[in-house]
């Protein structure tokens, strides 16, 4: 644990956060750009041996970076490590003034490839997504690192994961929540290291990944992933949950094909999706920490 | 005079952007406004055809931007006794022939002289869309009640918002009342709740629209056309009048009209 911790860039300016099978660099929003640049350079140079091949995402939060500053960050990281910067993330507000856009179509770094390549699984099992254990076999899931042995990045991810799990309950209550006050529309994507609360609908074609809970005061129709860094205790809450597919931690929820519309009572009203005995269930919402028994299994 | 520039856009092609631009533009002019419509669908121009002005094109919008001609040389005046002008798209160039900033300047120039500058936007979300939207202060989104068109409209609204064009208005075009009635087509409420934007008009599917397009006379000139009436009301709303939306309902056939008279049918007459 402590050994892994030593690998982390835990300065106030640059933070490394594990995300599924990848890592994200989170750059402090308020530090001046030249401080960020030199801080990054120093740390990467110090620990250059740790960084072998792989793709990373840079999260700049609400900071507004000019195109050449983005290029500078990219080049610092790429020259001081074997990493490839595949995309940048930013808070939606920084889009207005910023010189860059959230790239909706770029392949997300930690999109679990088992979602797009179900053929990896044996044919007899139709969609056994929830059997895939990210932390144990990240190599099978990210084609880029397929040839490498266990890299430093993976050790870091594991370290972060166990740390996260150990202090999960305590940490989760103090993560920063992100409020989205407008409809989340097709093609818009968001990642956040805490909880995400949307005070409107999440439309089909929109994507949200949060390391914490995802709460939608509206109709959730898009793709969301709560506990995106592996916390299966996270939940998804929505006033209406018509989304056919979503994920909590490593478990995929797929709406039952022939929706057993038992009573009107169970289909109307806010819903909560949670993981119970290794699969995703959906039940009428009765409080974030209520004891939920077996709900409607979302296993296709 | 300081007019405003409104872009008419959709994402998906063939939903009725050009039809809406021609008809709203014509209707606004009939209401006494000075109006110019600008076709930015470079390479695929057809606003001129629908307005019956295709034989009068000498210069186009790219010529103006490249300084080949003066702005007023590219403006084609409609033959009627109201003030309506068209700036056609270039047909032999592509969307990259102009920059968003250049179109913005052109529209700013037009705003000095017109009440309304309407931009007919090409389909898609690439350069042509960026050009058209950069120039506008307001946006009207056209969709049909089909999932694919609505999905694209949703994407467009998101893109407009992130580029600072807030509160776009929505036109739902080609509503087939009989299909809605049967439950085979989404109704206004379904579309409205999905897109969460203000609806400024409901236009029924009306074959007169196609007839009018072929003749080069926008359907607002046809007082019997239900689509024409719907576009007239949209123009009035754009012009600041507060006209409530009217539900689109199936037209009565002769038999049901007769039944209605003798109290056998609850169906109402068609409105738009
Ligand atoms: N309300 C309507 N009823 C019937 N046909 C329509 C209606 N609106 C548009 N159309 C037809 O649909 C086709 C596409 O319309 P157009 O305005 O060219 O779409 P866009 O500019 O979005 O590609 C045209 O043939 C047009 O006449
Ligand atoms: Mg068109």
Explain the overall architecture.
- The complex is a heterodimer of chains A (300) and B (272).
- Chain A is of the alpha/beta class and 300 residues long.
- In chain A, 23% of the residues lie in helices and 25% in strands.
- Chain A has helices spanning 2-7, 33-46, 67-80, 94-97, 113-116, 138-141, 152-166, 168-172, 264-267, and strands at residues 14-19, 22-27, 54-59, 83-89, 178-180, 189-192, 196-198, 207-210, 214-219, 223-226, 236-240, 245-248, 251-254, 271-276, 279-284, 296-297.
- In chain A, the strands form three sheets. A seven-stranded mixed β-sheet of chain A has the order 5-7-9-11-14-15-16, with no helix packed on it. In chain A, strands 6-8-10-12-13 form a five-stranded mixed β-sheet, with no helix packed on it. A four-stranded mixed β-sheet of chain A has the order 1-2-3-4.
- In chain A, helix 2 (33-46) runs parallel beside helix 3.
- Chain A is elongated and about 55 Å long.
- Chain B has one domain: 3-Layer(aba) Sandwich (Rossmann fold), CATH 3.40.50.300.
- In chain B, strand 3 and strand 4 form a beta hairpin.
- In chain B, helix 1 crosses helix 10 and helix 4 packs parallel to helix 5 (127-134).
- Chain B is globular.
- Chain B has an eight-stranded mixed β-sheet with strand order 3-4-2-5-1-6-7-8, with helices on both faces.
- With 272 residues, chain B is of the alpha/beta class.
- Chain B contains eleven helices and eight strands.
- Helices cover 38% and strands 15% of the residues of chain B.
- Classes of the chains: A alpha/beta (300), B alpha/beta (272).
- The interface between A and B is medium-sized, with 15 and 13 residues.
- The complex binds adenosine-5'-diphosphate and magnesium ion.
Blueprint (SSEs and pairs):
The complex is a heterodimer of chains A (300) and B (272).
Chain A: H1 2-7, E1 14-19, E2 22-27, H2 33-46, E3 54-59, H3 67-80, E4 83-89, H4 94-97, H5 113-116, H6 138-141, H7 152-166, H8 168-172, E5 178-180, E6 189-192, E7 196-198, E8 207-210, E9 214-219, E10 223-226, E11 236-240, E12 245-248, E13 251-254, H9 264-267, E14 271-276, E15 279-284, E16 296-297
Parallel strand pairs in A: 2-3, 3-4, 5-7, 6-8, 7-9, 8-10, 9-11, 10-12
Antiparallel strand pairs in A: 1-2, 11-14, 12-13, 14-15, 15-16
Helix pairs in contact in A: 2-3
Chain B: E1 4-9, H1 17-30, E2 35-39, H2 47-50, H3 61-65, E3 76-77, E4 84-87, H4 100-111, E5 116-120, H5 127-134, E6 138-143, H6 147-162, E7 169-175, H7 177-182, H8 188-195, E8 198-204, H9 207-215, H10 226-238, H11 254-261
Parallel strand pairs in B: 1-5, 1-6, 2-4, 2-5, 6-7, 7-8
Antiparallel strand pairs in B: 3-4
Helix pairs in contact in B: 1-10, 4-5
Magnesium ion binds at residues 17-18, 41, 46 of chain B.
